[in-house]
Amino acid sequence: MKLSGIIYKIGINPYVLLPPAVLKRIFTQAGKEKGHIPVNIIINKKEFIQTLVKYSGKWRLYLNGPMRKTAGKDVGDRIEIDIEYDHGERNTPIHPMLQEALDKNKIAKNNFLKLPPSRQKEIARYINNLKTEESISRNVERAIGFLQGKDRFVGRDKL
Length: 159
What we know:
Layout: E1 2-6, E2 8-10, E3 13-17, H1 20-30, E4 37-43, E5 46-55, E6 58-62, H2 65-71, E7 78-85, H3 96-104, H4 106-114, H5 117-128, H6 133-147
Antiparallel strand pairs: 1-7, 2-3, 3-6, 4-5, 4-7, 5-6
Helix pairs in contact: 3-4, 3-6, 4-6
């Protein structure tokens, strides 16, 4: 489904508001009108995955740097987007080093499983995006310390 909208900015985050007809169709496809709603979008024939988020009473489609660069658009510009509900599963895998460390430490593992899914995903994504074995190992150690209530990790205070 095609939409055209102006790119606005809230804080540091550029976004587009979706027309009511587009929202209605996505809500119907998703079977819900609350929470985060996964979508696939196409900008200039390039596909992206994104999530619709309701913030301050408005549903927003946030547009990151690569999306705006692909469109050649920025805040204040009108952008053309194809958008559809994403029926697919969205899982963030746990890095093998983190999984091994969690399996060896029951307290950390239990605390990890008690975290909200968004926080679990935040930790997993952070570790997954590290480049070197050294940085992965160092940060897995920090994550385990955080999950034991000993250390800070990813800008978060102790549990």
